[in-house]
Structures are given as C-alpha cells and as structure tokens.
Amino acid sequence: MTNRGSASNAILGAIAGTICFWVAISPTFAQQRIPHDPAEPQQGLPHPKLLPRPTGAIARQSVDEKSMRALIDQLVSCGTRLSLSSWTDPKRGIGCGRDHIVARLNEIAKDSGGKLQIVVDKFESTSERTGGKPVPLESVYAILPGSDPKFAKTLFIVSGHYDSIPSFPSDIMKPEIDAPGADDDASGVSVSVESARLVSKAAANGKSANRATLLFAAIPGEEQGLLGGYHLLDWAKQQGYTIGGMLDDDIVGADPAPGAPHRVRLFSGSGEIDDCDSPGRELARAIEEIDGRESIRMVFRVDRYGRGGDHYPFYKAGLPAVRFTEPLEDYNHEHQTPRTENGIEYGDRAKYLNATFLGDVARDNAEALRQLAMAPAPPTNAKLTGAVTPDAKVFWSAEDDPERAGFEILWRETTEARWQVYDFAESPGQTVLHGVSTDNHFFAVRSVGKNGARSIAVPTETERRPPPQPTGTKQ
Ligand SMILES: [Zn+2]
C-alpha cells in the first residue's frame, strides 16, 4: 500500500508540476486568469492607513449556552405560546412564556448594575389570524441606554418572537393544541436575551460603552401576521428613536446537516432603487465584516422564498433590517403539531437544536451589536457626480462628532457583493477620485470612530439622467 501510495503521489506531483509550468507559459490561461482592463486609476490605488477594528471583542467562550438552553426549555414547558392563548395562566400559554423571559432578563439586569431596563409593552392588534378581532399582546424589551447623549435616540434592535404555532394552516388559532416552538422561535428569543447579557457585560467594562441605545426584544404575534414587529416599529417611532439597525433572529437553533456547526444565513433585501443597495443590505455587509465570512452566509433576498419575519416591516419602511436563520431548515420540525405519522416525528422540539450552533449565533449577534452601537453616525446625503469627466466626485455630509476619526470611501465592481476601502478622508464634503470613472464601480461612504468602529455604509446616490428619448415616432 505504502509503495503504491508513494508512486501515485509522485505521478500526481509530476502532473501538477506540468500544469503549473503550462499555466505559466500559456497566453490563453494568462488571459483567463488576469482581468485585462485599463488600470483605474492609471496612477495606482491610494493606500490609506486603516484603523483596526475595536478591541475587546466578545469571546465565543463567554456565551452561556446552558442558560440559553434553559430558557428554551422553560418556554417549551408552557405547552403552547400561541398569541391567542392565555396571558394569565402561569403554567400554559403565552403569558407563561412572557413570565420566563421577564424573569431571565431581570437576573441579567441585576448583574448589569441596574443599567439594563426591562419594559413590558402591552398593546392590541388585529389580523385575519386573530379572526379579525383585536387581541391583547405584550412585548418584552430590555433597553441598554446609550452613553452618548448625541446617540441615545439612535436604536439598535435585536429581536426574537416568543409566540409559537401548531400545524399550519389547520391549527393556527387553536390554543388547546401543543406548539413547543423550540426553534421557531424560542431559539431567537434566547439569542436576543443572551445578547443582552453579553453586550451589557461588555459595556460595563468601560471600553465597549455603547454610544447608541440597544434594545433586546422578545415579541409576540409573529405567527399571527408580524403583529409584534409592526408594533415595535411604531413604538420606536413614538419614543422618538431613529433605527440604526434591526437584527431579527428567527429559527436559529438547529443545524442538522453533517459537518455542523455551519454558517448562519443572513437575509437582506435588495431595496427599490436602481444601482443602489437597501440599508438592510448595508447592515448585512457590516455584520459580515464584523463577524467574518467564516461565520456569516449572506443571502441577497429579503427572506426565504415566499416567507416573512419581523424584520420585514422595518425593511419596507426603508430601514436597515436583516434576518438571521439557520443553514438548513427541517420542515417536519417547524409549524407542525407534535405527532408521529408513518414513523416520522413532527414537531418543533428542543431535542433537535444544536447548542454549539445556537451559541455561535448569539456571539455573532452580540459582537455585531457591540460594534455597531460604538460607531459614529453614518454619513448622510452621499452623492456621486462627475459623469462624462475623467474623475468621480464623492460628496457626503455629517454632523460634528469629536469621537469620529473620519470616513472611508468605499467602492466595488458592479458585479461584486462586497465593498472595498478606496480611500480615507478626515472631513465631510467632496473628495475627488482622480482618474476613477463614475461608470465601472459603485461607491459608498461610512464613518469610522477613533475606537475603530464603522457605521453602516451609505451608497452614493447618482444623478438621474435618462438617455435622450424620441419625442415622437412614426409607426
Ligand atoms: Zn418564526
């Protein structure tokens, strides 16, 4: 065996050597491998010195997987958390779920030195799935106020929904049927709650103080028509908040495919402006940069095909909102009344969850929130001019901020998914990109704090100049 192995290796080595040699000398291969476009800019790229990312990253081992699992088990023990079930029975129904979440958040708030504030927000909502009648609902929020008065009214949200549902569509209004909802979405609630613990702990050590306000939400009514999500958006507006970003975690607990843990999927919609990106897409890119490509699988669509979640109301309002979801869903374990049929087990039970994967998702959410809430405000009014000239001109505005180091001007090939830093500028206003065409790249600007935290990118708007059109045509 050994001899044969060595012989094959020798042959493989010889083949590899031949291929390398051939690639090196072959003009056909060289053309395929090296893009052959005019250098842009001709004089070479700028080499700005970039600030490193903030120190004090939340360590993966600081995630408390045991407490996350304990909260999920408590939520499952409520039998059902259908939004139409009891709000007052401490043993069964959605009120039981609320009680467990509030209790866990109170523990975390105590450890935060009283910084974390717990709010139970009661409201009513109506949809087809409430039978057209208004039903009472209660959202649970843990709020970590921003340390910088300038940004205390900017809000970064992480949210999971704590209602559950049995089989769809037959049983969606039946509180008497069990709906454990371990993955959908006790998992997302556990991520939101654990993020509250991790981020408030990081903020307490001083270095990671959140300039903006953070809201860790557990909301009801998702399965009844995103009732908690729509209400959260209204609530934030009523409180006078600007939404800095909204991270929805929905179905983030299972990872059944071989080779787990895998990357979590991060969905972001494309927006409605030509040649531009939605704020949600920019938030997704920012999260991928913070957590790394080995952790985040960006998916460039608003949600799974034909499905929705609580980020949707925010996305439709033009706000930066994204959805985290596990890598490969098992539809026998979602929206299914627990039962066994023809030897197949149905139902959303905690035993199908993967603690390592779930812990990864919590860490990725918490670190993204930590860095985003430390960053200066994104620039405003970003514009691109200079069409039909040799130079692209990028303009943007920004309010004064003594904690800001400056701005990164970003660009990317129109076919590329990710931004690259083109240059750095200390002040807002106009920067001329000498020898750069307006036509071959997309451009954006983001703010950089002295602490290294980046805002989400703001793509430049282009002047809308349609080509000349005929004013009359003879048929
Ligand atoms: Zn869900």
In short:
With 475 residues, this protein is of the alpha/beta class. The protein contains 9 helices and 18 strands. A hairpin with a 2-residue loop joins strand 9 (339-341) and strand 10 (344-346).
Can you put this structure into words, describing what you see?
By secondary structure, this protein is of the alpha/beta class. Helices cover 28% and strands 23% of the residues. It contains nine helices and 18 strands. Strands 1-2-4-3-5-8-6-7 form an eight-stranded mixed beta sheet, with helices on both faces. The protein has a four-stranded mixed beta sheet with strand order 15-12-11-18, with no helix packed on it. Strands 14-13-16-17 form a four-stranded antiparallel beta sheet, with no helix packed on it. Helix 3 crosses helix 9. The radius of gyration is 25 Å and the shape is globular. The model is unreliable at 1-27 (pLDDT under 50). The site of zinc ion has 6 residues, from helix 5.
User: Beta fraction of the residues?
Assistant: 15-25%
Average pLDDT score: 91
Low-confidence segments: 1-27
Rg from C-alpha positions? Answer: 25 Å
Order of helices and strands: HHHHEEEHEHEEHEHEEEHEEEEEEEE
Helical coverage, percent range: 25-40%
Can you count the helices? 9
What oligomeric arrangement do these chains adopt? single chain
